Amino acid sequence: MSNKRPDRTTMEGMIWNANHVLDKALDPKTPGIPRGMIKNCKGVILLSMAEAGFIFSGTVGSGVIIAHNEDNSWSPPSALSVGGIGWGLVAGKEVKDVIICVMERGNVDTLSAETQVKIGGQLSATLGPVGREAETSLNFNGTSEIRGTYAYTWSKGVFGGISMETAVLKVRPKENARFYGKESVSSKEILENTLAAPKDMGVEDLHYKLDLLSKGKALVLTPAQVERKSSMRNLADEAGVLAKSVQTDVMEVDADEEVA
């Protein structure tokens, strides 16, 4: 299967990339995320961030946030931007895939507000422990030991914890409205399960993989899953082309110029 990533300025592309991030976390060759971390979190943020070039340029990116409900189900995804988003010339620079486990519902509510939230300012995302059995060293009884936001990254073939101190996250209400087919929709509505996600857009795959993570499972993609991933990538690219004429929060940038 091609390693090419789709346009990630649309929800279709961001959902594809979120599934891609989870594939990395579920790979049996990686240490994985502690199952208790996913089981007890109140939300998960799945991002694609770049320091320069590739699809994005500068320290920018995009992604989704998904709330974890009391009944252990997952909400539909809400669109986020990191700093700002854009597409430009492919320069082959580093892309980081990031998973952030949000351990408090109040922080999920903060992240669903349509204002900028600074990681390291309003929120603190610290190094997350790795290893599917690592929860034995944590306290998941609501003590301050897990009262925070924990970040993991996949970069240059290495999966592990990172500390995020400068990222600025913001909800993308217009992209949410486009994807959910409504004139207006708030991130709060999405994360509180008041509307359903469009069918067969990869959201069901996200929920399935998050459930696997919460059980400490690993996943090796079957040929059918690989083919589906390829089809979803093509769908995301098509959505990106169609959305460019209506997107107002996306800027075109020259990656080489940004690097210089």
From TrEMBL:
Q: Which positions fall inside the Ysc84 actin-binding domain? A: 84-200
Q: Which InterPro entries match?
A: SH3_domain_YSC84-like, Ysc84_actin-binding
Which keywords does this chain's UniProt record carry? Membrane, Transmembrane, Transmembrane helix
Q: Where are the transmembrane segments?
A: 44-67
User: Does Transmembrane show up as a keyword for this record?
Assistant: yes
Keyword Ribosomal protein belongs to the record = no
| Gene Ontology molecular function | phosphatidylinositol binding
From the Swiss-Prot or TrEMBL record, give the protein name.
SH3 domain-containing Ysc84-like protein
Which PANTHER family does the entry link to? SH3 DOMAIN-CONTAINING YSC84-LIKE PROTEIN 1 (PTHR15629:SF2), SH3YL1 PROTEIN (PTHR15629)
Source species, domain of life: Eukaryota
* One Pfam assignment: Ysc84
Species source reads Skeletonema marinoi
